[in-house]
Amino acid sequence: MALENLAGRAIAGYRLLERVGEGGTAEVYRAEHPERGACAFKVLREGLRGDPIVVKRFLREAGYGTRVVHPGVVRTYDFGESDGLYYLALEWATGEPLANFLHREGPLAPADAIPLVRQLADALAAAHAAGIVHRDLKPENIMFDARTHTVKLLDFGIARDAELPPEERLTRTGFFVGTLQYVAPEALSGELVDGRADIYSLAKITYYMLTGRHPHDGRSPRELFQQLLSGKPTPLSEASDRKFPPALEAAVMKGLARQPGDRQPTVTAFADDLEAALAGTKGSAKSRGLLGALKNIVGKRNSE
Predict the structure, then answer these.
(1) 111 lies in the same domain as 64
(2) Which of 32, 108, 135, 296 gives 112 a disulfide partner, CB atoms 3.0 to 4.6 angstroms apart?
(3) What angle do CA 163, 68, 97 make, to 5 degrees?
């Protein structure tokens, strides 16, 4: 059946210009608003509008977005129902998905990757402070602007409110949510997770940015599932021809610890560890350069 195309329509004050993407539950349009200008406009798929659980999840994403106000999070402008259509209007983020950039350009140097991790950590810290765990961090859910070297976090579609009572949570016990390649091991059984699950996912994104590979390389979903539950991640130094400072590798691998209590306590602490490792590397390089210059001076004096 052909997909419904709403381009050209005006919905809740937004003029839909063109369809630019689609997901499992919604279609995304580029839209214009007389006051807000360019927007991303998500509309729940036609075949799902009669499912009350899907509708509730869709509107829940919108509600979470309004609670997290941070430069590193795509802003939620408006959401609701109009003429039987459930919609979500968002800030139009310039750039492209980080996944596309990494696929095209390859791994990033630590000096380029770590500032992006800091931006993501700050955005996640704002979400965690609002009581929200993202649960679906992956490069596809991060917009990257190469001109400004900035990232923005989007898609709170399966986020969880850490403050809701169990009976109001929409996750079915025993079923994990998220993307298998980036999901935290504790989420695989469907148990309720906290912000440390986002630390794990951010560590996996960091690993991928630095190496172009994943720390678990299962050849099938079943094999990958088992590796996440019981296998050890490939050390960062073995995933690339690059040589990484021991402190940087230790920080990334700590974030990838299977047990949540063995990871850094917060996303901010994870980014702090990475920045400290990078600063230590620069400091060592500066010291080596100074030492080399002194040796040259001494050598010249001895030869005179």
Answers:
(1) no
(2) 108
(3) 120
Cα torsion 53, 55, 57, 61 to 10°: value is -170
CATH code for the domain in which residue 107 is found:
1.10.510.10
- What's the CA gap between 34 and 276, in Å, rounded? 46
Q: Which range of residues forms the domain containing residue 68?
A: 10-91
User: Residue 38 and residue 94: Cα distance in Å, rounded?
Assistant: 10
The gap from C-alpha 243 to its chain's centroid, in whole angstroms, comes to 25
pLDDT 10s digits, 95-106: 999 999 999 998
**Predicted confidence (pLDDT) per residue in 46-99, tens digit:** 889 989 888 988 887 778 778 888 999 998 899 999 988 999 999 999 999 999
Of 52, 72, 91, which residue constitutes the final position of a domain?
91
Q: Are residues 83 and 102 in the same domain?
A: no
Contact 264, 270 (CB under 8 A): yes
What pLDDT is attached to residue 175?
Answer: 40
Say which of 51, 78, 112, 136 is annotated catalytic.
136
CB pairs under 8 A, 24+ apart, for 17-21? none
**Is residue 136 annotated as a catalytic residue, yes or no?**
yes
Number of domain units in the chain: 2
Name the residue with tokens 């630590």.
110
- Please state the φ and ψ torsions of residue 104, each to the nearest 5 degrees: -85, -40
What's the chain's Rg over C-alpha atoms?
Answer: 22
Per DSSP, helices labelled H in the chain are: 52-67, 98-105, 110-129, 195-211, 221-230, 246-255, 267-303
